[in-house]
Inverse folding.
């Protein structure tokens, strides 16, 4: 108006339970033994969720081969056949919990067997 104007800018942060970015169905992954795999946890939220990974329904132990980044992604190096199975990323905050599943199959190259040869 003729007396002037006033303006104020502010941000609104909406808090709520973790939510999934993308499809809501399990993802199948095939990888070779001795390789490294990266599994993204496509779950976000505000407040930021805490991430826990489960392998075949048990909490995954972190080690030199297994690590979880702050964004919830999982890295497994030097894959072994025993690493095959279900991997669930569980993200939770004060408003709730969400899970996402991967089904990992680790393939090992066929081993050549040689019969005894007599000359």
């Amino acid at each position: 108006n003729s007396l002037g104007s006033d303006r104020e800018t502010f941000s609104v942060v909406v808090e709520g339970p973790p939510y999934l970015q993308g499809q809501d169905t399990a993802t199948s992954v095939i990888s070779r033994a001795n390789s490294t795999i990266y599994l993204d946890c496509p779950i976000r939220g505000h407040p930021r969720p805490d991430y826990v990974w489960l392998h075949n329904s048990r909490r995954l132990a972190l080690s030199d081969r297994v690590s979880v980044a702050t964004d919830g992604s999982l890295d497994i190096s030097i894959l072994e056949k025993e690493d095959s199975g279900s991997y669930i990323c569980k993200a939770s905050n004060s408003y709730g919990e969400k899970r996402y599943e991967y089904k990992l199959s680790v393939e090992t190259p066929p081993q050549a067997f040689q019969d005894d040869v007599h000359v």
User: Anything to note?
Assistant: The mean pLDDT is 90. The CA atoms of residues 8 and 35 lie 54 Å apart. Strands lie at 19-20, 27-32, 37-39, 43-44, 50-55, 58-59, 66-68, 74-76, 85-93, 96-107.
